[in-house]
Every structure is written in C-alpha cells, then in structure tokens.
Specification:
The protein is α+β, with helices and mostly antiparallel strands. About 50% of the residues lie in helices and about 10% in strands.
C-alpha cells in the first residue's frame, strides 16, 4: 500500500501514527483526570498535553469536569462530516456570491481609455438610504412635470400609503395624470386602497405579477430599489434622461399588457380572469401558485380552468394554451 494512503480510521482523519498510538493508549483510561493519566502512562504533564492536542482538536477525546471522555468513533466521525458539510456549504455560498462579482469586473474593464473619449461626466443620480421618502417624493413632484407612473406590487401595505395618496391628490388637482399597475391579487387583498386611488382619478390596471416597485415622475425622475424588488432602501434615484425614458418605455410595455379595471365604483372590481389564467397555464404554473398570484381560491382556479378547457374544446392544459394563442386570446 502506498505510504500516503490512510490505513485506518484515525489516519484517515489526518492523525499521524504517533497520535494514533496515543489515542489507543489513553482510550482505555477514560474517566481519569489529567493528573491521574500522567501517572498511569508515566509521562510528563507538558508532554501529555502536547500529545493530546491533535486528539482534542478532532473531538476524539474530551475533558468533562476534568475527567477524560472518549466518545464512540462513529459519533466523532459523524460530527466531523457534519462540520465539513456545513463549511462546504458556506464556501459554496461564498463562491456563488463571488461569481456575481465577475460580470461587474468584466463590465468595468469595458470602460474606454481616457485618451479615447472626451467630456466624461458622471450619470445623474445616486444610490442612497435613509431620509424621508415622502419628502423626497414631494420634492421630485415640485421639480418635474408630466405623468406619474407607478409599479405597486405591495404598496398598499406600507404605513405611509395614506400620506402618499394625499400627495398624489394634490398633484392631480394641479392637472397631472397618474397611472398605476398592480398585481391582480391586490383586488382581493386591498380593494379599498385601489378604490381610494381610483377616486382621486388615477388610472389603474392589473397584471398577473410585478417584479419590483418603481415610480417615474415625468421625464426627469425615476426611483427603483437596489437591487430590484420590494425593499424600501437602498434606492436608486435616476435623473439621467435617457435612463428615465428607457424605464418609461418598460412601464408602457407593461401597461399595454395589463388589464383595465373599470368597476371600482361598484366595490367589487373584478376583471375577466380568462387571460390571467391562460398566461399562467402557458407558463406551466401549478394550481396553488396560480391561486396565490391571482388572489383567488384553489377551487376557483380549478373550476375556471375546467370551464376554459370546455370553451376551447381541448382535453389538456397544454392544448388549452396552444389553442388560446391560436385564437389570439393571449
């Protein structure tokens, strides 16, 4: 057998032959104190401490109330495996996080050489945290003109919702228009909040789901969370006109696919669910996920899907998606 191949459990754990010998020497003496061990083994105190160190590091031996304890080898190895698995998992997460830095490094390397460009200026905007978001919105409204555009995946649950509505009312009273896109589930989770905004004159549409919060004020202000999502801060305040315009184009693309909800004054705003259900079927979503996204019960989801399949004259959900696309329903 090659010299570097472990030949026993203990050498497989990284112990030397000498440390393995010490283990089998002290293992039968479990229950004795350190002072008693020095006498039993006829070894100096300092030397024994040095010899036991590798065994203590691996948990092969312990001192419990000053007495030597020797856990079963199987338990020790199991603990070591769990520890290494945890460390491996942490390393994997760290490597994954570092991998996300690579594209940024590559992107940073694509900057033009200073000698190749002129009039280099920073983009207009900043990444920030803290402050008073409501005051910031008011300031942006005063320094902009044009439509107010909102992506509101969960805004009705925010404590400052009523205050934002008051600011919105003042802006709309001056002649500005407001348009907002909500996820469909908002119609069941927060109909009163949507009705309040609708009564102010805001145009509202709903879509299956929204990936992030965002608002755009005219052509000079856009605010997004960093990274995209539902956090309040840090936030990116963008004033670079071309970037604001690009985000406006994105909003308009979502707006064109979203569904109007004209019936808020009845108190039972509910658009036709057919299109939303078909979108989810084409995406391969499970019934439970569809129910959560659309804010309806699982039973309603299954009943509506069955009715759609009958209406389309198909036998499977896949066929339903294909036939709906063929008819131009989605």
């Amino acid at each position: 057998m090659p010299a570097d191949v472990p030949s026993s459990v203990l050498t497989s754990l990284g112990l030397t032959r000498e440390s393995e010998r010490v283990y089998y020497q002290v293992a039968p003496a479990a229950g004795h104190t350190l002072a008693e061990l020095t006498g039993l083994l006829n070894i100096a105190h300092e030397e024994l401490i040095r010899d036991l160190a590798p065994l203590l590091d691996l948990g092969l031996v312990k001192f419990d109330r000053e007495k030597l304890a020797v856990p079963p080898l199987a338990l020790v190895v199991a603990d070591l495996v769990r520890g290494e698995a945890s460390r491996a998992s942490n390393v994997a997460h760290r490597l994954d996080a570092l991998a996300w830095a690579v594209p940024h490094l590559v992107a940073g390397a694509t900057r033009p050489d200073e000698s190749d460009v002129s009039e280099v200026r920073p983009l207009e905007g900043e990444l920030s945290s803290g402050g008073n978001p409501l005051a910031l919105i008011g300031q942006m409204l005063r320094t902009s003109s044009g439509d107010m555009l909102w992506l509101r995946p969960d805004a009705w649950a925010m404590p400052r919702e009523s205050a934002v509505s008051r600011v919105l009312a003042e802006a709309m009273a001056s002649g500005r228009k407001s348009r907002a896109i909500y996820p469909l589930r908002a119609l069941t989770e927060a109909p009163e909040a949507l009705q309040t905004r609708a009564r102010l004159g805001e145009q509202i549409r709903v879509i299956s789901e929204l990936p992030t919060r965002m608002f755009i004020l005219g052509d000079s202000h856009a605010v997004l969370p960093e990274p995209l999502g539902f956090a309040d801060e840090p936030r990116v305040h963008i004033r670079q006109r071309s970037v604001v315009q690009a985000l406006t184009y994105w909003f308009e693309a979502l707006w064109s696919t979203a569904t109007p909800v004209p019936a808020f004054d009845t108190g039972e705003a509910r658009p036709d669910l057919r299109r939303f259900l078909l979108e989810q079927l084409v995406a391969g979503a499970q019934d439970e996920a569809i129910a959560r996204k659309l804010g309806i019960s699982l039973r309603t989801v299954r009943r509506r899907i069955a009715a759609l399949m009958i209406e389309l004259g198909v036998d499977t959900r896949f066929q339903a998606g294909v036939e709906a696309v063929r008819r131009g329903w989605i």
